[in-house]
Specification:
mainly beta; Porin; 4-stranded antiparallel sheet; 3 helices
Length: 385
């Protein structure tokens, strides 16, 4: 079997393992709850629910809660995708989310949130049709993040917030050349946020999430250990929220995700010379700028929202052959949300997001093609007292 094709297959498999198409901005979820998804992820300046802990912790002080607010929910993701016309056999994933915010006093708020931010898996029966036999890839990955957080109202206009991001990354991989069993590692990062009320109708939000430094994934093989770093990227987001009239909110966000720092080239340690493992994974991801806009209208106990989210794929055509297992190339997303208050304490929300189909064919080397679209459904229930 051609050694170059073997190296390509292994790089592809490892990438599929690490960055499966369960997210929408590259490999990052743009919303952690139904309320956030309904706004197209435009929630940096105006918190929509307790899940703001996972986006901009300063938003905890902007929820108008008396004592405590809790939000629980889950998402169902359906991302049909193809590699060279071969469909993935795993097309449904569940993503749980939970968050709580506590009003300590007029100025101090504490909170915590947990959610899946990356992973799940692929199951492609034959992703390199030109190679001998069926080149099966079966992978699982899950990255969950737990974030304890605090927010402090400096004055009536300015609120500052911070969270500690604790990530748990779980991975497993099976392919024709070798198999790496389930393994888990922890990682740490932080998020700093601020919200400033310019006037009663306009406010700005800022959020910076540091790189989540995850410990090396280490595996023992018959020839010795194999290890590599797979971290989560840093990001910087700025948002403006405008309320032109009572009950109507419009928000526009811009976010920069620094993929090139963690997904340009990843060195692989293989001192025992395990066959098929390349010395580095040259994925070539670019940084991504994301634009999101959301509009929400309150109508008595009901609220409706619509959102649009766009980010150019961090994978270019020149890097398709190094990313055959990713398919994380969706760019345009349209979302619709509904919320209803059932009582003074209980409310629920639902959102549907569609990521429009995008395909990309390699411009360098073999003309391999990847294709994907996404459908995502989020449901949440909130309790405040």
């Amino acid at each position: 079997m051609n050694k170059k094709l073997v190296a390509t297959a292994v790089s592809t498999a490892l990438f599929a393992w690490a960055h499966n198409a369960h997210a929408t901005n590259g490999d990052q979820m743009f919303a952690m709850s139904a309320a956030q998804a309904g706004m197209g992820g435009a929630t940096v300046a105006q918190a929509q629910d307790a899940a703001t802990v996972l986006v901009n912790p300063a938003g905890m002080a902007d929820l108008g809660i008396k004592d405590v607010r809790m939000d629980l929910g889950f998402g169902l993701l359906n991302p049909p995708r193809e590699v060279n016309g071969q469909e993935s056999d795993s097309n449904w994933y569940m993503m749980p989310t939970g968050a709580a915010v506590f009003n300590v006093n007029d100025r101090l708020f504490l909170g915590m949130g947990l959610g899946g931010v990356s992973g799940m898996g692929v199951n492609v029966p034959d992703h390199l049709v030109g190679m001998a036999n069926n080149q099966v890839i079966a992978t699982t990955k899950a990255v969950f993040r737990f974030s304890p957080a605090a927010a402090y109202k400096v004055n009536d206009a300015l609120t500052l917030g911070a969270s500690l991001n604790i990530a748990n990354q779980s991975m497993a991989l099976t392919m024709p050349a070798f198999s790496l069993p389930q393994n888990q590692q922890f990682g740490f990062g932080a998020t700093l946020g601020a919200i400033y009320k310019i006037n009663p109708k306009l406010q700005a939000g800022l959020s910076y999430a540091s790189k989540t430094d995850i410990a090396k994934m280490e595996y023992n093989t018959l020839n010795g250990p194999v290890s590599f770093d797979m971290d989560m990227p840093a990001s910087l987001a700025l948002g403006l929220s405008f309320k032109p009239m009572p009950g109507l909110q419009v928000e526009f966000d811009v976010k920069r995700i620094y993929f090139s720092d963690v997904m340009n080239r990843i060195s692989v340690s293989n001192p025992g010379g395990t066959a098929g493992i390349p010395p580095a994974l040259a994925f070539g991801w670019d940084d991504q700028t994301v634009y999101a806009i959301g509009v929400k209208k309150d109508m008595g106990p009901m609220a409706v929202s619509v959102g649009y989210n766009y980010g150019k794929s961090p994978i270019g055509r020149e890097d398709v052959n190094a990313n055959l297992g990713s398919t994380a190339i969706v760019e345009h997303h349209l979302s619709f949300g509904l919320a209803r208050k059932f009582s003074d304490k209980v409310s629920g929300s639902f959102a549907y997001t569609h990521a429009f189909e995008n395909d990309m064919t390699a411009s360098v080397g073999p003309a391999n093609t990847i294709k994907i679209n996404q459908n995502q459904y989020n449901v949440n229930i909130s309790y405040a007292f």
